[in-house]
Amino acid sequence: MNPGKQPESSRSPSEGSSFPDGHSGAPPARPGYLTVGTGSTSEHADRLAALLDSDSGYGGSIADGESLNRGWHHGVEADRPTPVHHAAAGDGERRVMASHIHQLYYNQNKNSLGRAIGSMVDALKEFQKMNTIWPAHYPSVQRSDSGPSERPTLQHAQTSLQHGFQSAFSDRPSPIRRADTTLRDASPSAESSSAAARRPGAEPRLVTPQLAQDFSILKIDLKMGSLRQTELVHSLEKSSVAALLDGQIQKSVQHLFALRERIDDTSSKVLVTGDLNAGKSTFCNALLRRKVLPEDQQPCTSIFCEVLDVRENGGIEEVHAVPIGQKYRRDDERTYRVFELKDLENIVIDNEHWAQCKIYIKDIRSVDESLLNNGVVDIALIDAPGLNKDSVITTANFAKQEEIDVVVFVVSAANHFTESAKEFVFNAAREKSYMFIVVNAFDNIRDKNRCQDMILKQVAKLSPATFKENSELVHFVSSNAIPTAPPGHIVSSGGSGSASGGPPDDDGDDGPSGKGKEKEKIRDFAELEASLRRFVLEKRAQSKLAPAKTYLMNLLSDVDSLATINRDIARSELDRVTQELEDLLPQLEQSKKATDNADKDTDQAIEQNVSGVYTHTRDALNTSVTRMAETDFGIEYPGALSAFQYAEDLKYAMLQTIADTVGACEEHARQQTVAGVNMIKNLGVLHLGNGFPDVSFRPENMFRRKRDMLARQVDVEVEFSDFFDFASLWERQEKVAGTGMALTVASVVGGRLVGGMGWVDGALGAAKILGSNNLRRLIIPGIIATVALGVSYAITSIPQSLPRRLSNKLYAQLAAIDYTHANASRISSEVRRALKYPADNLRVGLKRNIEQLQTKKEDTSKLRGESEMAHKYFSNLVQKAGMIRSNVERVDLEGPAPGVAAGFDS
Ligand SMILES: Nc1nc2c(ncn2[C@@H]2O[C@H](COP(=O)(O)OP(=O)(O)OP(=O)(O)O)[C@@H](O)[C@H]2O)c(=O)[nH]1
Ligand 1: residues whose CB is within 6 Å? Predict the structure, then answer.
């Protein structure tokens, strides 16, 4: 009998009704997934098996709907061998079926989560890779400066049992929050990796503070040193953010591996705790049907004793006592001492040497009945020391361990809950919500109903959830009524009351009513065992799978948020760089054209300038030289006696004039050069704007070393003949003919113009005509007169003759050295040289401008490629996260309340 059926509300709706084998009853009110028939396999079980048959099994790479069409994974088959059923029919078979169904559901959920973990690991690894190419933008954490108490709390989605239970059942992960992807906040700071890298002092990729609040797993803790958050945000390089995120991803991948290991782990640990002397060891022995653990009227168990199936120790029954401070590893004998089972009594009381012991025993009961070897899950029982003020915290901490799936609390029916017990149950209930409570030594109680009422009331206060399901979770039993084999002996399966060391007859009644009571006790205990098995199986799903589910949901939420924001940022970046590229291409074309034009314009301008200067110089010099004779140099003719000095002065004046002309031409060239430089500058400013360097041109630096060229090159010696220009004299004699006969004669007789000695020839010609006598008479005075006249005339015409003669000589001399052309070339070359510098600057500037635009185009194109890739990647990640999430969401770990699945609420 299980007296814990009431209250009505807590009773399972499947109570006495869910079997199509003739049992009457209403359909289950709860969403029961089970209707177990008495046949070998129920319809639902068939369906479930078929569903699982078509499951791809654990580790599939794609977590989507198609996976349901894949084959059964070996891992699932390998989970447990098909149990050998001993129960022929009825309750036994229903229990078997219930276990099967639990196992099927468990495997299905385990496989789904396993696949999701696999996909998630793949996705995270890809994310890590992507993060190196395109450092992800990360929402910054906006903390209050008022202190750590106001910081957003980091939700740990770790696999701790307590959290697993709570988050899975009370605080289910909230649906994935779409990140606030409005780019109001994101866009301004959004920039690509390369852009950010190039931009000096670029802000790190931290955006949208409010988003960070939503992160639970991939949260980057930016608290460092004494820096405030805002300072920190700006001090972090984007590479640092990427590295921090990479670290978080790495941690997450490791945690996912740990979760996968955990969900693959088929073992389950049941901690049996309770008050001193409540009968914990007796209860464990009853479960094992062997007197393994020492029982005593006085407290004796002082260390944690873990009972494991002998298969885990190579089939050898023995005790491994673990010394205090040692971490037990079965495969390392240095970590424990081996004892025989019979030594256990001495070990369990010796808490001065031993911290715990591992007891490997054989449980040869059938897989349907055995707790340790039940065909579904490897259960280890842990008998804890009785609770007292000192041990309550130790035991509570022990119970919190991840691997403890179920806590069974044994309370003495006579003593009810002691203060230590209350403290423990109350705290444990907060962690695990449901507890399995065994009210032991119920045989000692006369007013059983009152005892039940009182204890249930206490349970209601301490653990309301457990109270709600009390028919499944609170059992009133007498553990000592269960037949157990003495140490070293083994009872046969299914034996009830027939084993050696059988139940003591508490009331000494051997009659039919006494036997009836014994049977009742055994039945109650059997019910407890069935409930406990279900509870362990159900809790195993919750304790092993719920943390994985919770963690995945939180992680998916983070990944979805990160992927969404990064997708949107990549999109906006893509749009921006596409636009930039569109603007850049015509700019580049224009710049190329402008460069060509500027090049041509500059060349043309230089050529014009240079040839203008050349022509100007040549013309000016030519004019200067040819007009030299007519030029009045302002030099007074000092008379014949100083004629040589006069000639020298004249020569230098002429040379000076030419030099001045050259100087004027140079000055003109300077002006032309200044104009040319300005023109080039204007072109530069036109095409390069401020990018054109402001070259300062100093025209005075031109033609510095050419000043004395003329003096060195032109060396005209003044000769005697330079003073007399006979040709010129001849021309002029017309004007003076009337003044002297001899001259007239000479002009008449001479009849021809000769240079040099023409006058003398003329005189001789005249002598022939006049006859020798006359002539003889006239000749001497005539000659004298003529010569005197000629000399006088020549001397007086020096000021006219000398400039011409000198000018002619200079002209000839200058022509001989190609002076005009040489100077015109020199000056124009200097102009060309002077203009070359700004022209080169302009060319270099234009070239650089094109190169810069070209580089910008290449960078922008690269950026565009990166953004496009990032956009595609993050869009896919959002999709992938959504797909994984819907698969994880489908994993229903809540299922029916404890025991409902089995349809056993009796
Ligand atoms: N009448 C009765 N006595 C029981 C029952 N279960 C245990 N006992 C007795 O209670 C005493 C204590 O049992 P244990 O199993 O040693 O108790 P325990 O909780 O393991 O004790 P410690 O761990 O040492 O605190 C023993 O003498 C048992 O025979 C029961 O169901 N009915």
Answer: 276-282, 295-297, 299-301, 385-386, 440-441, 443-444, 478-480, 506
Identify the sign of the CA torsion 15, 16, 21, 26.
negative
- How do strand 337-339 and strand 404-412 relate by DSSP bridges? unpaired
The distance from CA 542 to its chain's CA centroid, rounded to whole angstroms, is: 35
Q: 752 and 615, same structural domain?
A: no
Round to whole Å and give the CA distance between 549 and 552: 5
What is the pLDDT at residue 839?
87
What residues pair up with 272 in beta bridges, in sequence order?
383, 408
- CA–centroid distance, 337 to ligand 1, in Å, is 27
- Minimum CA distance residue for ligand 1 atom 13: 279
Mean pLDDT of the chain: 72
* SS3 sequence of 364-382: CCCCCCCCCECCCCEEEEE
Query: What span, in angstroms and rounded, lies between the C-alpha atoms of 202 and 647?
Result: 82
The pair of structure tokens assigned to 878 is 């959002």
Domain residue limits at 824: 588-719+782-859
Nearest CA to ligand 1 atom 32: 441
CATH, residue 410 = 3.40.50.300
Report the phi/psi class of residue 311: left, alpha or beta, with left for phi > 0 and alpha for psi in -120 to 50. Answer: alpha
851 shares a domain with 754:
no
391, 477, 480, 518: which to mutate for ligand 1, most atoms within 8 A of CB?
480
Nearest CA to ligand 1 atom 23: 301
> Which residue owns the Cα nearest ligand 1 atom 3?
441
Between the CA of 276 and the centroid of ligand 1 the distance, in Å, is 9
Number of domains in the chain: 3
Decide if 156 contacts 541 (C-beta within 8 A). no
ipTM above 0.95, yes or no: yes
In tens, the pLDDT along 422-456 reads 888 887 776 666 789 999 999 989 899 999 999 99
Residue from 296, 444, 448 to probe ligand 1 pocket by mutation (most atoms less than 8 Å from CB): 296
Q: State the pLDDT confidence band at 837, using cuts at 50, 70 and 90.
A: confident
pTM: 0.58
